[in-house]
TrEMBL record:
<dbReference type="InterPro" id="IPR016166">
    <property type="entry name" value="FAD-bd_PCMH"/>
</dbReference>
<keyword id="KW-0131">Cell cycle</keyword>
<keyword id="KW-0521">NADP</keyword>
<feature type="active site" description="Proton donor">
    <location>
        <position position="264"/>
    </location>
</feature>
<feature type="active site">
    <location>
        <position position="336"/>
    </location>
</feature>
<keyword id="KW-0573">Peptidoglycan synthesis</keyword>
<dbReference type="Pfam" id="PF01565">
    <property type="entry name" value="FAD_binding_4"/>
</dbReference>
<feature type="domain" description="FAD-binding PCMH-type">
    <location>
        <begin position="22"/>
        <end position="192"/>
    </location>
</feature>
<comment type="function">
    <text>Cell wall formation.</text>
</comment>
<dbReference type="InterPro" id="IPR036318">
    <property type="entry name" value="FAD-bd_PCMH-like_sf"/>
</dbReference>
<keyword id="KW-0560">Oxidoreductase</keyword>
<keyword id="KW-0132">Cell division</keyword>
<dbReference type="InterPro" id="IPR016167">
    <property type="entry name" value="FAD-bd_PCMH_sub1"/>
</dbReference>
<keyword id="KW-0963">Cytoplasm</keyword>
<dbReference type="InterPro" id="IPR011601">
    <property type="entry name" value="MurB_C"/>
</dbReference>
<keyword id="KW-0961">Cell wall biogenesis/degradation</keyword>
<comment type="similarity">
    <text>Belongs to the MurB family.</text>
</comment>
Amino acid sequence: MTSWNLAGLRTHQALSRYSTYEIGGEARFVGTPHSVEQLQELLELAYRRGISPIFFGGGSNLLFPDQPDPDALFLTTREMVEVKLEGDRLYVSAGVPMSMLAVIGYGLGITDFDFTFLLPGTVGGGIYMNAKYFDRHISDTLVKVHYIDLQQPGTVQTISREECEFGYKQSVFQHNRTRWFIVGAEFKLSSIAQAADLTAIPELVALQEGKLPSHQLPEFASHFITWLKTKEGLGGQDAALTPMRKIIEDRVGKMHFSYPSCGSVFKNNYSVGEPIGKLADRLNLKGVQRGNARISPVHGNVIQNVGGATAADVIELIRHVQDAFDRNYGFVPEPEVVIVEGQATQLQQE
């Protein structure tokens, strides 16, 4: 390979287009492979040219830099959307939206994935963070994870759930962030009808045909809320949709989709006994603004882009919250958001 003319490679892309924060400067190279084979070709070319790969999924839990590293290839799985069903095992590639799992579960008549409804991001990102909603985690029904190890980029490795070291918003993949890249996973379904057919789920077919729901928060939320309302219109008050209706009430009520954001910025510190949001509320941090980034007026653990915010604005607010917690509570909250380093100085992790 001697040129950059490869399927799935784009040049001079604004990273703000690839993040739910809608923040990020222009990247020299962005890879959007549709398959593991395309991903491996991009990795091979990057290594030959001395370009460093930076992995991400739907961009829902990260902050891109204002000045990206020009010698980096930003690789996203968002167009890797293969789904296969074999008996009670469901294989899902890393780029499938988390919320699509809820749609698939509804189509198969199971409740295994109800909690993923309206969770932004992709399955790969969800596994990386062990995504949760209340007391349910993406790892609950997980069996295996498939990934590429950059020290052995030519083959796909497999790891069992037990080896993934899952904890509260933790996994072994975070410890190997610069080496391991999730490409797919297998889930064990609680039950499955013998006649189950994924091709009978029109939303999944549309996804695989390239009709992806937008990763921008307002459009993303509207897409899946409209899906639920359509199902209600066809079947009345279907009890199977009740958990998803409650999620809409909770997340829309907290303005999760009103402005670009990454959702919760900090991990909760359960040794303290209260969520970060409530602790921030007590310090009157809601509504505090730096530049065009603002702590949500209704949720103290969400930093919003209220229009044209920069990564520097968000980082300044993160530092402000950390300093306030350190002074008043005696601990520094750990960021959940992944801060991607660029040419400018980034947040120093405590």
